[in-house]
């Protein structure tokens, strides 16, 4: 056995992978629950794109401008329903007890509508403070999206101040092309797009061809995992919780979520509850 092989056995190179051993993930994030979500969801479903939809349950569907709660479960099936506060106030200006009630009440009503725990959020009007960030876990919120763009594909350091790659009106196709061409598997890459579906409406430019062209271009690729916001959070938490043996030759997955890793460039799946030799 040569020295290089001895070293590889002594200290393996182990990387976290996305499902099926992929190293790229795409996620979409859309706010306010306007009726244009119906057309946006249709486009996402057509091309296999996953979206997270942040809704204000306290703003009614009067004048037909917002999705009624009775439609939420069926419309967003296969995607994620997420919190956006009850009435969309600029929460950095609100008393903290009111902020908490805005979040909790929104969650309660949305959960009744969609049938599962709502654990994510986006800040209404992009408004937040450190104190608000700190109370989110106590409100049952595990991630929260801020406004702004990074034009980058790095994973966030803190999911409670999660900034997107870009708004769909900001370098969308340029970022998509860069993302599609990423190939270095020693990194995890994420493209995160946000916006509002009403921004595609006739009164705002009628540019549905932009989002459909993007989805057609980026959808259906073998090296991309298409996920909602909470699916990414849950998966990364499960990956972080893997238990490795001191010699790096065994790994135990205490969660119920299958996790994939790369061991010396070999993809290994660790099922929930399983201990696997690597």
Describe this structure in words.
With 278 residues, this protein is an alpha/beta fold. 30% of the residues lie in helices and 23% in strands. It has helices at 3-10, 37-47, 69-75, 96-114, 130-135, 172-180, 208-218, 229-240, and strands at 14-17, 24-31, 51-55, 80-83, 120-122, 143-149, 162-164, 166-167, 189-195, 224-226, 243-244, 250-252, 259-263, 266-270, 275-277. The strands form four sheets. Strands 2, 3, 4, 8, 9 and 10 form a six-stranded parallel sheet that branches. The protein has a three-stranded antiparallel sheet with strand order 1-13-14. Strands 5-6-7 form a three-stranded parallel sheet, with helices on one face. Helix 3 (69-75) crosses helix 4. The mean pLDDT is 95. This is Polysaccharide deacetylase family protein. Its main location: secreted. Residues 24-278 form the NodB homology domain.
Helix content: 25-40%
Number of strands: 15
**Order of helical and strand elements:** HEEHEHEHEHEEEHEHEHEEEEE
Strand content: 15-25%
Mean pLDDT over all positions: 95
Protein name: Polysaccharide deacetylase family protein
Pfam families: Polysacc_deac_1
Domain NodB homology: 24-278
GO molecular function, one term: hydrolase activity, acting on carbon-nitrogen (but not peptide) bonds
């Amino acid at each position: 056995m040569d020295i290089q092989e001895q070293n590889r056995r002594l200290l393996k190179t182990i990387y976290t992978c996305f499902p099926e051993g992929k190293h790229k993930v795409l996620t979409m994030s859309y706010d306010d629950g306007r009726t244009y979500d119906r057309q946006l969801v249709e486009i996402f479903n057509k091309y296999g794109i996953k979206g997270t939809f942040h809704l204000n349950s306290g703003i009614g569907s009067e004048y037909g401008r917002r999705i009624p709660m009775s439609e939420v479960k069926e419309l967003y099936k296969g995607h994620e329903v997420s919190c956006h506060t009850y009435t969309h106030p600029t929460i950095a200006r609100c008393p903290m007890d009111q902020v908490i009630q805005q979040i909790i009440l929104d969650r309660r009503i949305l959960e009744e509508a969609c049938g599962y725990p709502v654990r994510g959020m986006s800040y209404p009007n992009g408004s937040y403070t450190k104190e608000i960030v700190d109370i989110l876990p106590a409100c049952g919120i595990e991630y929260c999206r801020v406004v702004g763009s990074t034009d980058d594909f790095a994973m966030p350091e803190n999911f409670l101040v999660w900034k997107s790659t870009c708004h769909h009106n900001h370098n969308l196709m340029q970022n998509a092309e860069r993302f599609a061409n990423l190939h270095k598997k020693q990194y995890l890459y994420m493209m995160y797009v946000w916006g509002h579906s009403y921004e595609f409406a006739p009164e705002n430019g009628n540019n549905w061809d932009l989002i459909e062209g993007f989805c057609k271009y980026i959808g259906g690729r073998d090296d991309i995992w298409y996920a909602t916001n909470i699916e990414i959070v849950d998966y990364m938490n499960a990956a972080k919780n893997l238990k490795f043996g001191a010699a790096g030759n065994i790994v135990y997955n205490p969660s119920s979520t299958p996790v994939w890793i790369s061991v010396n460039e070999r993809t290994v799946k660790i099922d929930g509850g399983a201990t696997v030799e690597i």
